[in-house]
From TrEMBL:
Family of the protein in this entry: Belongs to the immunoglobulin superfamily. SIGLEC (sialic acid binding Ig-like lectin) family.
GO molecular function: carbohydrate binding; sialic acid binding
Organism this protein belongs to: Ameiurus melas
CDD domains reported for this sequence: Ig (cd00096)
SUPFAM superfamilies (alphabetical): Immunoglobulin
Keyword Metal-binding: no
Name of protein: B-cell receptor CD22
Lineage: Eukaryota, Metazoa, Chordata, Craniata, Vertebrata
Signal peptide (UniProt feature, chain positions): none
Its membrane topology: Single-pass type I membrane protein
Cited function: Most highly expressed siglec (sialic acid-binding immunoglobulin-like lectin) on B-cells that plays a role in various aspects of B-cell biology including differentiation, antigen presentation, and trafficking to bone marrow. Binds to alpha 2,6-linked sialic acid residues of surface molecules such as CD22 itself, CD45 and IgM in a cis configuration. Can also bind to ligands on other cells as an adhesion molecule in a trans configuration.
Subcellular location: Membrane
Span of domain Ig-like: 7-115, 133-216, 223-306
Keywords attached to this entry: Cell adhesion, Lectin, Membrane, Transmembrane, Transmembrane helix
GO biological process: cell adhesion
Length: 313
């Protein structure tokens, strides 16, 4: 066997019990060296014939021993250095029952070391929640009716809850259940103000944020009335600026145009910004710059405009 002295330390406590769906942090530090290969291994066993520790690779910094797929996108590795010691803390999200086991940190360089063990036990959690539909990768249209379900096992005593993220208010939802699940259905007629709104599905009677699931709404809507900020009266030769902003989704094409006081039927395009919700224009005023300026915003859902007049003295 190799040297297993305290060049790596998994800090106390070295054992914990966590609920399925929750999160665990294993605090760890090691004595820094350059050029190390770093591994977190579950249920490591020494293979004498191969002179290596075998097991499930939870985290890896080397392609020689890649991370297994079951931990992909579920682990965070913290590796910041502080003086002689370097962080090797591991955080595992969305715990599964089969995550139960012994975890060790291993480094390989000019010397090889493995840490003491951390024992993780993952308990059943009948109140683990999920959102239906599972993947919301579509945008909704303004005014569309949206139904979202927060579901848990029928073995859970209580129906799950919906909240707006950042708020303690419980949203009204319709309860249902069958032989498999308990569901709380949220019904919304989405408006433009719901674009970017985050909703939280969580177990009843739990304050563990790691057991929550979130969904962010994407709502497509036509441009609101553009906001024009500009000088209304300037002297010839002075710098004048026009800024046009708008709220819309998807982003709008903004067009700034001017109709001459002497020929109000003719619009002169001054500036156009494609897929941008802000337009800025600046120039030194001439007599011909006087006129009625229009900022028009257009996207796939519709268009809107605002007007303002510029006088040049």
């Amino acid at each position: 066997m190799e040297d297993t002295s305290r060049s790596i330390v998994i800090e106390e406590p070295t054992t914990t019990t966590s609920q399925e769906g929750s999160c665990v942090t294993i605090n760890c530090k090691y004595k820094y060296q350059d050029g190390l290969k770093l591994l977190w291994i579950k249920d490591a066993k020494w293979i004498e014939k191969e002179k290596k520790f075998d097991g499930i690779i939870v985290y890896s910094s080397t392609d020689e021993r890649p991370q297994v797929a079951e931990y992909s996108n579920r682990v965070e590795f913290f590796n910041d250095q502080s003086n002689h010691w370097t962080n090797c803390t591991l955080k595992i999200h969305d715990l599964k029952k089969n995550d139960s086991g012994n975890y060790t940190f291993r480094y390989i360089g000019s010397e090889k070391y493995i840490s003491n063990k951390f024992l993780l036990t993952v308990m059943d959690n009948p109140c683990k929640v999920h959102i239906k539909p599972a993947i919301l990768n579509k945008s909704f249209k303004e005014g569309e009716k949206v139904r979202l379900q927060c579901a848990t096992s029928v073995a859970c005593e209580f129906h799950p809850l919906w909240q707006s993220s950042g708020s303690s208010e419980i949203l009204s939802s319709e309860h249902s259940e069958d032989e498999v699940e308990k569901r709380s259905e949220l019904q919304l007629n989405v408006s433009w103000t719901d674009d970017g709104r985050t909703l939280t599905c969580r177990p009843s009677r739990s304050n563990d944020s790691y057991l929550e699931k979130i969904v962010t709404l994407r709502v497509e809507y036509s441009p609101k009335t553009p906001n024009m900020t500009m000088n209304e009266v300037v002297k010839e030769g002075e710098l004048y600026t026009i800024t046009c902003t708008v709220e819309s989704s998807p982003q709008a094409t903004l067009t700034l145009s001017r109709s001459s006081l002497t020929n109000p039927e003719k619009d002169i395009i001054t500036l156009k910004e494609i897929q941008s919700n802000i337009l800025k224009f600046a120039a030194n005023a001439t007599v011909s710059d006087a006129g009625m300026y229009t900022c028009e915003a257009e996207n796939t859902e519709g268009k809107n405009f605002s007007k303002n007049q510029l006088k040049v003295l």
